[in-house]
Amino acid sequence: MKKMLVYGAILAFCCAPYLVVDATASNKGPAEITLQSTIDPATTPKPAQFPHGTHQARLECKTCHHGKGADGKRIAFAEGQKIEKCETCHNSKAGMPDKVNTFKNAAHVQCQDCHKKDKPELAKCGVCHKK
What are the structural domains of the chain? Predict the structure, then answer.
């Protein structure tokens, strides 16, 4: 009985660092996100379901996320940077180029362009915009 307790304690001690790493690694954001514009809502707002966890398991944060410099230009994402909502900058009041001047346009450019290259079947409307 004593041996079993000793072995159990050793096993728990050896496995603990891996459990802590897994817990912190999965704390990068919600697994699922509903994307919907609140600043520039479409005539009939169509929320998109975004599997964030699936994407973060395969991609680095900087693949999608970025920031904005003092001059209003896009800057690369840096680890630890606060992640703002996309429409903080991508809205009709921010003076962005037409291609990305709303959250909807920016999301379509970001998501569809990537999927058209890698998995065209995922670039269809109904994949994100469930009925």
Answer: 29-128 (3.90.10.10)
Render pLDDT for 7-30 as a digit per residue (tens, 0 to 9). Answer: 444 444 444 333 333 333 445 789
**Nearest of 35, 54, 55 to residue 45 by alpha carbon:** 35
Rg (Cα) of the chain, in Å, rounded? Answer: 21
The alpha helices in the chain, defined as continuous H runs, are 2-25, 52-58, 103-107, 113-118, 125-128
Burial of 70 (C-beta count, 10 Å sphere; 0-12/13-18/19+):
exposed
- Tokens linked to 14: 């050896």
Q: What phi, psi does 68 have (nearest 5°)? A: -135, 130
> Does residue 102 contact residue 40 with C-beta atoms inside 8 Å?
yes
Question: What is the distance, to the nearest Å, from the Cα of residue 103 to the centroid of all Cα atoms in its chain?
Answer: 14
Rounded distance, CA 102 to CA 82, Å?
Answer: 21
Q: How far apart are the first and last CA of the chain?
A: 58
Q: Which residues are 66's β-sheet partners? A: 76
